[in-house]
Amino acid sequence: NIRLLCSKPFFSGYSRSLLICFFESRFYCSIWYSIHPYMVRTSAQYVPLGSGSPYRFLLSISAVLLGGSFQFGYALSCVANTIPIVAREFALTPLIVSLFVSGNQIGGLFGAVIGGPAADRYGRKRVMMLNSIPMVIGTFLIVLAQSQYHLIFGRVISGFAVGVGSALTPMYLQEISTVGARGAVGTCHGVTLTTGILLGYVFSIPALIGTAETSGNRWRVFMGLPFIPALYQTLALMWCPESPHWLYHRGEVEAATAELRRLRGRTDVEGEIDAMSGEKVEGKVTFADVIADPVSRLALFIGIGLHGSQQLSGINVVLSYAPQIFSQASVDNPAMPTVITGCVNVLAALSTVILVDRLGRRPLLIGGLVLMTLAYLGVGVAQTCHVIGSCGGSWTGYFSIFMVCLFIIGFGSTLGNIPWFMVGELASIQNRGTINSICVACNWIFNLLIVFTYDTINNAIRPYTFFLYMAIVFLFLLFNWAFVPETKRKSWDTMKKELEGQVTRLPPTLPSKSLRGPKPSC
Questions:
Q1: Are 486 and 502 in contact (CB under 8 A)?
Q2: Distance (Å, rounded) from C-alpha 369 to C-alpha 373?
Q3: pTM for this model (two decimals)
């Protein structure tokens, strides 16, 4: 009925889109209008959507975000408040607790490695639909667990699905978007991921699932919630198109054109089809091929550096150990500041949707890393004053809360989102799956490394722990300044030419003397 109403001639293109978006997906309506200005350009590079309905485009976004990004974030945070409950019910040892928590990362590592090559061979849509199977199996193993082994295997199997989704979601979003909206759509991955983290914290508060003594089976219901997004993704993807880029470079030009028309809601898509012809694909690409090609090797190097910047910055330490961090800085009740940081994380990720295609990727990355460096400096000062200094007091608690929020703002608005889609902008369609899988696998390895080493490092050098993390973030600031190029609204042909020029220079983002021109005279 809404669509029939919107078909009346007195509704303009904007009002028609607004009504449809509002009634069919209130949340993604805001996303649509944030990217709409970039979808209505008339040049060949920024292909317009015209008056076509955004329904299928939004349905595709919502399917992969809920089935991939949301599951990723929820899996990271859902165990935080359930650890005491399952440890008591199953009499878990510290080692088994560690395996239960890290099972998501272990499975995610294998899923990330397999996801990209599988998507290159069988298609993005098909692999994402099949990926719901391990998610459902892992979820039910946890929900119906009768022993500690069910818990561990359930986390590993569902973590495998999370890893596959982490590799495919940014890739699919990048390939169904126009060049002008690529950044805004790509940041939706980070926004939904942080929303999953926040909801994982909120849904697992003791008031909802109880404590170790009073929970009963409520924790099982909470751990079974990922079944709903997995089911939604499977059903929604039945009406969603396959990636037109993937089809085109398999030689299925007619199928790619048909799917692109379904995606855009109109028939004049020749501009985008012509743009795809600039991406040459010849045969299957292996890791050796990526290393042998200078441009691909540079793209891989930058991609690994971006994902290293994201995880080795210690974001999961801040999110997972926020109560402990606040306690070490004289915060009396760390529960509320933890919730506040989760909310700030979501708001910071939302800001990227607006900023990434206005300011660009590179300025955001550098600015975010500067904020993160200053924030870690502040946290380190607060903890040092509280533990060993004579300057401690109530101010250290408030100061540490402010600095952690500043860190979350710097991270959430930049590194929390940009690496996931920027790797796809640096790689051609030919090797995008291979490069993306390697980078996401490195992301999971860095994730494991930073989480496993925090307790040891903190016990060894506390209260100077965050001075070490500050030094790491500063090194990545130098890396991003020296090596990461700008990709905002650039086609692959443009990026390829820039990367070819960068491989001959060190650091790559600095122009060579021949490109600077003669020195101006006084």
A1: no
A2: 6
A3: 0.71
